[in-house]
Amino acid sequence: MQERLGERSDEALAVEARRGSEAAFQLLVERYERPVYGLLLRIVRRPETAEDLAQETFLKAFRALGRFDPERKFSSWLFKIAHNAALDALRRDGHEPLSLDAPVGDSEEAPELPADPKAENPFARAAGRDLGRALEAALRGLRPQYREILLLRFVEELSYEEIAEVLGTPLGTVKIHLFRARRDLARALAGLGWDPEELGGGGREGRNKERPPA
Question: What residues are paired with 194 via a beta bridge?
């Protein structure tokens, strides 16, 4: 039974869990505990808080299974629960999060962005230890919601429509804030001595730029 369950889609497992299958829900937890924790950790920046929020996320998901629509993508539904938990935690700590549904400038339109989540992926070249550390440092300097939107797009590889569902914002707003998040990440990496253009170069790792002598 366990093996057969393991071959099922997330949505099918959610339906089984809704019918009372603890094994099905446990498989969903095993599939998503690391992505959910990783997302929460990069938003709130505290491991203990992220662990508590991850447990809270799965508990809320379990209790809300009766409202889950199997026509929707389970991962988007689960990440939305985690997103809301993280925002509540930031507010409790007195850090009012950036509202991604805030109005943008009159002259600012949603940019055309690549349809392929792997295209120009700022995380794709981060296999090297030095670059990985630089990327984490750059992410820490971003607004929490910018970190989240980058992770949802380039690590979890959600579509723009799925990200809009997770964040509860219009599609055009998602595109604008993703554009801004990538811009700020590129600036942060440049400030750490990395060339953002080389990071997305075809098939070769970006190299740390030599800083000019003082």
Answer: 208
Question: What is the H or E stretch that residue 45 is in?
Answer: none
Burial class, 155, CB count within 10 angstroms (exposed 0-12 / middle 13-18 / buried 19+): middle
- Which helix (H) or strand (E) covers residue 127, if one does? none
The domain defined by 2-92 folds into Rna Polymerase Sigma Factor; Chain: A (1.10.1740)
Q: Give 105: exposed, middle or buried? Use CB within 10 Å, 0-12, 13-18, 19+.
A: exposed
Element counts in the chain: helices (H) and strands (E)? 10, 0
Class of 98-214 per CATH?
Answer: mainly alpha
pLDDT tens-digit profile of 24-37? 999 999 999 999 99
- Give mean pLDDT, residues 57-62: 97
Distances (CA, A) of 128 to 60, 154, 157, 199: 37, 17, 21, 11
